[in-house]
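Homework-ish question, so no full write-ups if that breaks the rules, but can someone show me the predicted structure for this set?
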Amino acid sequence: MEALVHHREDHGQLLLRVAWVVRAHEHGRLSYRVLLVEDDPHTRERLARSVREHAELALVGQAENCAQALALMHQHHPDAMLVDLGLPDGHGTDLIRAAEKLDVAPLCMVITAFGDEKHVIDAITAGACAYVLKDASAREITQAILDMRAGGSPISAAVARYVLAHFRNGSKPADANHDEVDRPDFSERENQVLQLVAKGYSYQEIADGLDLSINTVREHIRKIYRKLAVRSRGAAVYEAQALGLISSQP
Amino acid sequence: MLAQRTFYLLLIALFWLASFAFLARLHAAPPEQAITQMQFLPSNSSTLPALDNPEWQPVTLPHVWSDSGTLDQLQFGWYRYSLEWPQAVDPHTGGALLIWQLSMYAQLYLDGQWLGDGGAMNSRPDQSGVRNEFRPMLVTVPQPMLTPGRHELLILLRAQPRGSGFMGPMVRGTAATLEPVYHQRFLLKTTYLQLGAVLIAAIALPMGLLGLWRPHDSVYFWFAAFGLMFAMNTAILTVSHLPFSGVFLDWLFAVTINLALVSVLIFVHRFLSMRKPRLERLLLKASLLGAVTLALVAWLDPANLHIWSRAGWCTASVIMAVYPGVMIFRAYWHRGASSGFVLMLMGTLMLLLGIRDVLAINHWWVSPVEGYWTHYSVPITFLVFSYILFRRFHQALQESETLNRELVDRVRERERDIEAKHAQLREGERQRDLSAERERILLDMHDGMGGTLISTLSRLESDGEGDSIAAQSMRSAMADLRLLLFSLEPNAATLRASFAMLRDRLSAQCDDAGLQLHWDARGLPDDYQLERHETLQLMRIVQEAFTNVLKHADAGVFGVHMSVDEPSAILHVRLEDDGCGFADDASAGHGVGLRSMRTRAASFNASLKVNSTAAGTTITLSKPA
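A: Not a homework solution, just the prediction itself:
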């Protein structure tokens, strides 16, 4: 329960990375261990091949449904998980939430057919920190995993627009006509970055425009991801408390 | 500030003094040769008295009955004067007598023969006669009576009310010399006041109607009420033939004075924006009660009516008028407004004159023979205030017009707001519907066609057929599906934002193919918009061109340049590569691709220019605003 309430912050991220490096050394291997969850066998095979063929990545398991995935997850403690959302016995976001509860949680990446904002946002609020298109090339897929490991999170203009439109700004009063939820407390910079992404500017253009390095832009986006996830976790805890499922006393 | 107000107050006081002096000067004394000694006989009947009555006593003119304690209930009095016409009386001009002032009804007899009752000589010799309040009386002696020798002139005076009679000095002369003097005097004592009353009534009537029309702004109504009451009062005072009994006129005189002063008080309240409805109601009720009481007195004890009406009711009313006088003074002192000054100047003068008149008619301190002075100041005051009220009304009209215009503007603005809000709501609803529909399609695609396409594509790739025609077709189908879904995105309002997704995909594919992507949208304003279907067609054209370059051009760079010309607002999209180029109809693939691009461009009114050489291909799309 405490793991659920636990808010992972940036320094937590750093600790995670250190933990991974230490563990990798202990196991005498430096490859990044990936668990793949996808119900369509052909697509799964294609993705598996892409991961397997990359030198820095190791595929520790493939699951075609939630049950398998949970078993493999607890068995292998992967560094990263590639998760399809529509699974035969459940939704990928549930899997991501379950993964978040692990002591050393894997980074989760969602596999989506179109990269549409609704699916991506669902995944982000569940705790995913990246997404990749199912028909992406092998290079794209492995690059996305490595980017995620490096602390990067992709964000499309559509996703940014969705966040700006559907998450209400904290200062704005609630509007009964809109199913908006509170937007997390984004910093001014994060808001700027979000606005520019929504307008269709590339990371490089944003970095140039705001006089930042491209890595700083990436960090801002990862923070946006985290804040969205924290917000949703906060809401989940609140709801759980309200339903009497967990005690409000620590 | 204080010094300034004091200075103005000093000016006002000077004005009062000047007004009093002017009025005193107007009521000038009779000519020096006037007869001021006569014999007087108090009487209780209008029958000619005997000349040898021992009660005849000498009196000095003007002879005011109320000067003497014994005459204050007297109704009739006889004056007697012995005169001799000169030997040579001009038969054409005749002899004439001018009585300077008298009150109230007079009959003149010469040697026992009826001579007249003033003014019109053809009146019947009855008791009523002509009402002469303070006015002069000119009597021309007819030719046959102008015989040389001694004559006895007898004048019968009837007082109404009792005891209020007085007789002024008399001037003897010819009609030719006395007539101009008489007319001058008559003009001052009667005509001027009558004209003033007519003027006041003429202004007050329409103003009263105006007041009825604007009941919320009752200042006009009360001012008009004052004017009408005062005009009526002046008429009673100055018209010599009124078809009413003297008692009734006495009653009406007191009632109109009282109502005029109550109206003034309420007018002052309204004018100074003071709200005292209880006091006003109380005063109006008191007025009504006073009128009824006086009517009862007139019916039961007409002989004593004047004590109740003139000494009582008129005096009480004037004392009450001290209150608005104080209000005016306070308003002037505290506010110092220009209209406050005028109110002070004219209004308090009226009050002072009223006090003087009350003293005069009751013969308390001032002699009543010069009549009422208030009535001289009222027409001018009324005119001045009518002007001020007219300006005020005009201003109010203008203000209300301005307010109306503002209101109309605000209503229109509000209508526009509401209209805009409605449009926004409708648009919001449309967007929500669209969004829900798109979400449904997306879910369908995800689990259905999209999944199948990707699954099949994966299978083809696993089977080593990733470059087959089928796999390529599937990729292009997938790409097109994605474009279609993104063109429906509810928030993708601007072209730049819509193109962001395409840019991501092209960028990834370029990386895969080792192709450099030059994306240049610097000339594209952030807010440039196209219709959804136009955006979709444009994205498809770019996608098609990109696919062609990937397949056939063997290029190193693919450039997309977007810009909007100022001020023509023409959108230019330039797609260029440094590949091997093609003749317009060289290969079947190119031909089909270009044709479909042209068709798509034409579908949203854009033109397409293709320039292909061995050093590369440039496709330029232009879309007018």
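Now go work out the reasoning yourself. Hint: Chain B has a mean pLDDT of 85.
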